[in-house]
């Protein structure tokens, strides 16, 4: 007798969904309202926010707001209609791709409607059942989901561990020798949780040594616009930008918008244009988003003060936290994790205290993303934060850590909050 799928769902809500009734609207799906900036409104109160990926502070830059508004008034959100292959191609889309290629010093670029969707589809397009993927264990969910569509073998190496990479490449090489396939290595420029950069230079050195033959695909969603002298990303910062075969970036972080892109050699991009199902069968990116992306890229390129201020804030925050005795792991990007010891109940009680009594809103990360009995508070500095924000946050973190160590957040159950879902 068949199982009722809906009954199965009722019994198994998933690793996060099992907590939904107690956390929805507060710890998950919170509503941050008002102008996007260093301070926003949460549950009717102004909070200092460290959870928005508005790295360069462009979300409410006056030139950006004007470009978005003017483009919406001129074009609306419907134009162009259809996929780019059919009826959705415009000169503006082509111009944005050319400008990204020029900025990134790459031969060609393809625009993507969404980063997550685009990464999944790109992996599916590039490899076939004869190929092998070798990837970093901390790769983003979009990479993992893309590999689930892959009909061939895949091997994972321990995070940024070159000895583990060597072992997995040896396994992959033995397989492709028999399948007449190739090897695609996938990693990230900046890992979005812990903030450390992928070991791109070491991976390139492996290839240059001649020991292994592979192509390198780098997801640099958090590095684009923030790392490197120009802001090309981790590859530029590590001096191997030209050695990255396929480079992915998103508009959702530094450019504070929607959409993404892939840069590669012209023949690779041409292949993707005709084979990426997420683009071939999806409506073209609306014109206001394209116009807005061009303005954001212009500011990213021509106004380096935004990246400079971002790093001033990030460096002050990270240095101050370390000097105050906090563990921020091995981050070498703007992403700033703070690792504490505690269980789920303590994590929620501490976060509740930060938001309700100190008006600080930052993301909380718990098991299985981090080990059991570890609490990670993830802070995203931006160019619109101030040194006063940094100082207040560090002082507050010292206070709540002392409370945590003294057992003040201990309880039998995790904190839950009554939230009006319609508010």
Q: CATH-wise, what's the superfamily of the largest domain?
A: Type I PLP-dependent aspartate aminotransferase-like (Major domain)
Q: Could you say what the CATH topology of the largest domain is called?
A: Aspartate Aminotransferase, domain 2
**How do the strands line up in the largest sheet?**
4-10-9-8-7-5-6
The whole-angstrom Rg is 22 Å
- Going by helix content, strand content and strand pairing, the class is alpha/beta
The number of helical segments is 15
- The proportion of strand residues reads 15-25%
Architecture of the largest domain, CATH level 2? 3-Layer(aba) Sandwich
Mean pLDDT across residues: 93
- Overall helicity: 40-55%
Strand count = 14
Low-confidence stretches at least 5 residues in length (pLDDT < 50)? Answer: none
Number of domains: 2
Order of helices and strands: HHEEEHHEHEHEHEHEHEEHHHHEHEEEH
Largest sheet: 7 strands, mixed
**Principal-axis shape:** globular
CATH class of the largest domain: Alpha Beta
Structural description of this entry:
This protein is of the alpha/beta class. The chain has two domains: 13-49 and 305-405, Aspartate Aminotransferase, domain 1 (Alpha-Beta Complex); 62-302, Aspartate Aminotransferase, domain 2 (3-Layer(aba) Sandwich). 41% of the residues lie in helices and 15% in strands. The protein contains 15 helices and 14 strands. The strands form three sheets. Strands 4-10-9-8-7-5-6 form a seven-stranded mixed β-sheet. Helix 5 packs parallel to helix 6 (141-148). The radius of gyration is 22 Å and the shape is globular. The two termini are 43 Å apart. The model has no long low-confidence stretch (mean pLDDT 93).
């Amino acid at each position: 007798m068949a199982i009722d799928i809906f009954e199965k769902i009722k019994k198994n809500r998933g690793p996060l969904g099992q907590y939904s009734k107690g956390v929805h609207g507060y710890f998950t799906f919170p509503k941050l309202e008002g102008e996007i900036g260093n301070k926003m409104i949460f549950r009717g109160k102004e909070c200092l926010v460290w959870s928005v990926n508005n790295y360069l502070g462009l979300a409410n830059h006056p030139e950006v707001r004007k470009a978005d508004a003017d483009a919406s008034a001129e074009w609306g959100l419907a134009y162009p209609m259809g996929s780019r292959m059919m009826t959705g191609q415009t000169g503006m889309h082509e111009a944005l791709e050319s400008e990204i290629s020029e900025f990134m010093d790459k031969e060609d670029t393809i625009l993507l409607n969404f980063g997550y969707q685009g990464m999944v589809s790109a992996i599916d397009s590039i490899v076939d059942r004869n190929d092998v993927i070798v990837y970093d264990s901390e790769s983003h969910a979009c990479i993992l989901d893309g590999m689930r569509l892959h009909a061939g073998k895949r091997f994972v190496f321990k995070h940024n561990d070159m000895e583990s990479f060597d072992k997995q490449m040896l396994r992959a090489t033995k397989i492709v020798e028999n399948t007449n396939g190739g090897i695609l290595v996938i990693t990230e420029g900046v890992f979005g949780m812990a903030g450390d950069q992928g070991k791109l230079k070491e991976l390139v050195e492996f290839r240059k040594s001649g020991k292994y033959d592979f192509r390198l695909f780098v997801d640099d969603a958090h590095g684009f616009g923030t790392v490197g002298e120009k802001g090309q990303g981790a590859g530029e910062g590590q001096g191997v930008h030209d050695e990255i075969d396929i480079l992915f970036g998103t508009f959702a972080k530094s450019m504070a918008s929607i959409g993404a892109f892939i840069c590669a050699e012209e023949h690779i991009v041409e292949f993707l244009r005709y084979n990426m199902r997420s683009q071939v069968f999806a409506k073209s990116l609306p014109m206001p988003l394209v116009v807005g992306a061009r303005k954001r890229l212009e500011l990213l390129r021509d106004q380096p003060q935004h990246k400079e201020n971002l790093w001033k804030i990030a460096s002050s925050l990270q240095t101050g936290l370390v000097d105050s005795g906090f563990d921020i792991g091995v981050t070498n990007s703007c992403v700033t994790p703070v690792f504490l010891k505690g269980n789920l109940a303590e994590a929620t009680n501490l976060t509740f205290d930060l938001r309700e009594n100190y008006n600080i809103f930052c993301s909380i990360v718990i098991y299985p993303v981090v080990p059991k009995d570890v609490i990670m508070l993830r802070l995203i500095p931006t160019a619109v934060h101030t040194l006063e924000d940094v100082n207040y946050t560090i002082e507050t973190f010292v206070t709540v850590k002392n409370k945590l160590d003294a057992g003040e957040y201990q309880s039998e159950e995790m904190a839950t909050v009554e939230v009006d879902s319609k508010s």
